[in-house]
Amino acid sequence: MNDSTPPGPDDPTGVDPTAAPTGPGRPATAPDGGPLNRRPGSGEATWIVELRRLRTGLTDLRSRVDGLARRVEEFTGHHTDLAAVVSEQIAPELAALRQFTTEELNRQAGQLDEVLTTLRQEDNAPVNWPALTAAQARVQWPVLAQWVAEVLVPWYEITRD
């Protein structure tokens, strides 16, 4: 045997390079009773390659899951910040706006009621000209003429020119 050939299991030195080293604290066999660190056959090699590929895939998956967990944590922080802004700033402003709107609507409704009450009490209520009979129209023409003479012409300074 030349020096470049490693000893095999049949080597007279008795050293099997495929066997795991033994010694204090190192078992001579695997948990299933087989030898440790023996060289795999072709079927086992394929299985080992597949295991390595799966291990790499699991590592990549773990990395992606960790990245997603960090993003969820980040978004949770953003959500908490946004919720604080809404509850501390926007909600009180919205409540004040709602109160102002309600008060303003009530005020304007009161003014409208006053105007309607005034219109009902006046002799000069709006006239629905198309709905008048001929007799009612004869009564309303002089009222309209008086309004034109006393309000419209002086107010808008209408002249015959």
UniProtKB/TrEMBL annotation:
Biased composition annotated in UniProt, kind: Pro residues: 1-10
Biased composition (Low complexity): 11-35
Region (Disordered): 1-42
Listed name of the protein: Uncharacterized protein
Provenance organism: Pseudonocardia benzenivorans
